[in-house]
């Protein structure tokens, strides 16, 4: 199958063609680049929803409920679910989609699980390309569920239009709630497992944190993050959460021109692709004789690690020119 044929099949919303390209993308196959280039002019129409939060907060169950609610509103949904990769075997269970089995036969839903492959930003390096594939297929919504993240793994904010941070009680004290990073990217807080002890306290802490941040901000027209209590296992609060997501979308469309948002996303995409390419070439360089030679010279005291790293970068740039 040629790249043109594969691109045409994806634009015709053929799931097998999309799955095939996503496999090529995730494997870093050079053949994927030409297909993605053909798809690029057909992207930019989907609304991207990022769902992130701590491990065990119920993100997958909540995403499953979000998909069901959006389908009830006659919206098509593509989903990329990120799972952690073993640092030892390199494998991943890819279990997020197990919680979404009820949508397996729905032609209006496409779910793809993908391993982080060691990426530390909460999403895999192939995630933006997979989002591009789903966008080209014409899905109304694309949900990106990150791997369980900490306080500074917030790459999702550069990819999503709306970012939902899922929190549950018992993961830290009020000092944790004030820390920068994950807490600052939220457009909406989904306080999940509302039946668990400590939920009311967590809600108070988040409201107090938001009040402090609001006083420190001079832009009165900016979006003020909303709090939505949920119990995803029972579907409680999901309808209100979806309504709040639509409210943020409406606010975003009124306050930021579409072209501006597309340009900002394009800037991040270009930078991400450049970093990914550089990382791949660095990994390749690590297997070359140059690295081994420089390591020997470093151990013998004939060079220093910074000069050695400069030589590696110079070799990569020379090979690329």
Automatic annotation (TrEMBL):
It comes from the Bacteria. Coiled coil: none annotated. This is Methylmalonyl Co-A mutase-associated GTPase MeaB. Belongs to the SIMIBI class G3E GTPase family. ArgK/MeaB subfamily. Pfam families: MeaB. One of its GO terms (molecular function) is GTP binding. Keywords: Chaperone, GTP-binding, Hydrolase, Nucleotide-binding. Signal peptide: none annotated.
């Amino acid at each position: 199958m040629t790249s043109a044929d594969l691109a045409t099949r994806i634009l015709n919303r053929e799931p097998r063609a999309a799955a095939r390209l996503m496999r090529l993308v995730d494997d870093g196959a050079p053949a994927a680049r030409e297909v993605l280039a053909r798809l690029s002019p057909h992207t930019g129409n989907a609304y991207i929803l990022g769902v992130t939060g701590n491990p065990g907060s119920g993100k997958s169950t909540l995403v499953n409920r979000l998909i069901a609610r959006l389908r009830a509103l006659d919206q098509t949904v593509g989903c990329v679910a990120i799972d952690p990769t073993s640092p030892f075997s390199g494998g991943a269970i890819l279990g997020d989609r197990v919680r979404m089995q009820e949508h397996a036969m729905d032609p209006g839903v496409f779910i793809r699980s993908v391993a982080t492959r060691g990426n530390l930003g909460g999403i895999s390096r192939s995630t933006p390309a997979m989002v591009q594939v789903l966008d080209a297929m014409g899905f109304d919504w694309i949900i990106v569920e990150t791997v369980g993240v900490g306080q500074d793994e917030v790459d999702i904010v550069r990819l999503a239009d709306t970012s939902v941070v899922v929190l549950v009680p018992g993961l830290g004290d009020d000092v944790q709630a004030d820390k920068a990073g994950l807490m600052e990217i939220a457009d909406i807080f989904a306080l999940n497992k509302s039946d668990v002890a400590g939920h009311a306290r967590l809600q108070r802490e988040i409201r107090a944190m938001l009040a402090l941040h609001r006083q420190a901000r001079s832009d009165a027209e900016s979006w003020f993050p909303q709090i939505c209590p949920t119990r995803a296992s029972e579907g409680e609060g999901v309808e209100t959460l979806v309504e709040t997501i639509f409210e943020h979308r409406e606010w975003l469309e009124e306050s930021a021109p579409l072209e501006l948002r597309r340009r900002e996303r394009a800037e991040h995409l270009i930078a991400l692709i450049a970093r990914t390419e550089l990382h791949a070439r660095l990994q390749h360089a690590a297997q070359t004789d140059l690295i081994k030679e420089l390591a020997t010279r470093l151990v013998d005291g004939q060079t220093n690690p910074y000069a050695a790293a400069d030589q590696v970068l110079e070799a990569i740039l020379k090979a690329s020119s």
